[in-house]
Design goal:
This protein has 12 helices and 11 strands. It is an alpha/beta fold. The longest helix has 14 residues, at about 165-175. Pfam families: NmrA (PF05368).
């Protein structure tokens, strides 16, 4: 399948999320027709010209109208309550194939049940998986504004976080240009940083010192409980951060390979988002 034409329709699932909005913007800029799937069309707030339709990936029986006339599809692997793994991949893919979808990007590692269903369908598909979003640092905004400090456990962990705009650019390029069938792309930024290094970059963008204070696991439990986190969520996060695999610090060349430009550094992201921390 060749490059999409301006008359081709691309359906973006998760279109109102942090990444989904960026994908929509990139596709609009590429000049293709964009249809956005959301459970709340009235509150979508997407650009003019984007067709916003109601749909829920956990209820594939109702996706027919959203898929009608669609050439390419960006598909989530998590959805519903608490972003649980989708169990409806086979039904979604069957509906997509029946509707004439010919190209799919999957936001996943390439090895999950949704990806396996897409691969088995014979459609042109590509998996895109960001190690971590730089936008996750926005969770520090309140503490930085009010106290000038970031407090987290396991401060030595390094992650090659990606700018969400770069991830969206990769997805849009794959959908519009093609030529990536069967690939599994891990998307990162150009460097692996610790929370303390990210904190310093935010401080530099603000022109003032922002401190990083490492918490013990027990201190983190107490802080997150005071913030209203459920106990199971607290233990999940602590376990995840305590067992971060070294591979999350591995930098890839995906952004440059697919988009022909280098990925943005965290310092650039911090400078662009500085108003959120002031």
């Amino acid at each position: 399948m060749s490059q999409l034409k301006p008359t081709d329709v691309v359906l973006v699932t998760g279109a109102t999320g942090t990444l989904g909005r960026k994908i929509v913007d990139q596709l609009v800029a590429a000049g293709v027709r964009v249809r956005a799937l959301t459970r709340n069309p009235a509150g979508a707030g997407l650009p003019n010209g984007v067709e916003v339709v109601h749909g829920d990936l956990t209820d594939p029986a109702g996706l027919g109208p959203a898929l009608d006339g669609v050439t390419a599809l960006h598909l989530l692997t998590l959805a519903g309550e608490g972003n649980a793994p989708l169990t409806t991949g086979e039904e979604i893919v069957a509906s997509a194939i029946a509707a004439g979808v010919r190209r799919v990007t999957v936001l996943g590692t390439g090895d999950g049940p949704v990806e396996r269903a897409v691969a088995a369908s014979g459609v042109e598909w590509t998996a895109v998986w960001p190690i971590d979003f730089m936008a996750n640092a926005l969770g520090w905004a309140d503490a930085i504004r009010t106290e000038g400090v970031v407090r987290e456990p396991f401060g030595g962990r390094r992650t090659a976080s990606a700018d969400e705009t770069d991830v969206a650019a990769v997805v849009a390029a794959v959908l519009v240009d093609g030529g990536h069938a069967g690939r599994k792309y891990t998307v990162t930024g150009p460097e692996a940083l610790t929370p303390a290094e990210k904190t310093r970059a935010i401080g530099a963008a603000l022109g003032r010192e922002v401190r990083f204070e490492e918490l013990t696991p027990d201190q983190a439990r107490a802080q997150w409980a005071a913030d209203g986190w459920p106990s199971e969520g607290i233990e999940f996060m602590l376990d995840m951060w305590a067992t971060v695999p070294p591979e999350v610090a591995d930098v890839t060349t995906t952004v440059e390979d697919v988009t022909d430009r280098p990925p943005r550094r965290f310092a650039e992201w911090a400078a662009h988002h500085a108003p959120a921390f002031r």
